[in-house]
Amino acid sequence: MKVSDDQRFVLLTKMYANNSDSVFVFDRQSAVSPSDTILKKSNISFLNNHAVFASGPGRAEFIDLKSKKEKFMVVYSAATPMNP
Question: CB under 8 Å to 45, separation ≥6 — which residues?
């Protein structure tokens, strides 16, 4: 469980044995519960009181929890050339 510094947002992670993790976002100022769900991201961190950075296999995203705007990034890993 992770909580924003102002204690407005709470992130709860549900782990699966054979599947990608899910992160449930709870906004203590919203009647909707959970207010959002983040899928297939195993690493998630608060950047400030209302923004998180989440990353998982091949993708990362920045999420503004107040506006629910997301920016996705594709993560490329370095490849080693094969010898013929």
Answer: 2, 52, 53, 54
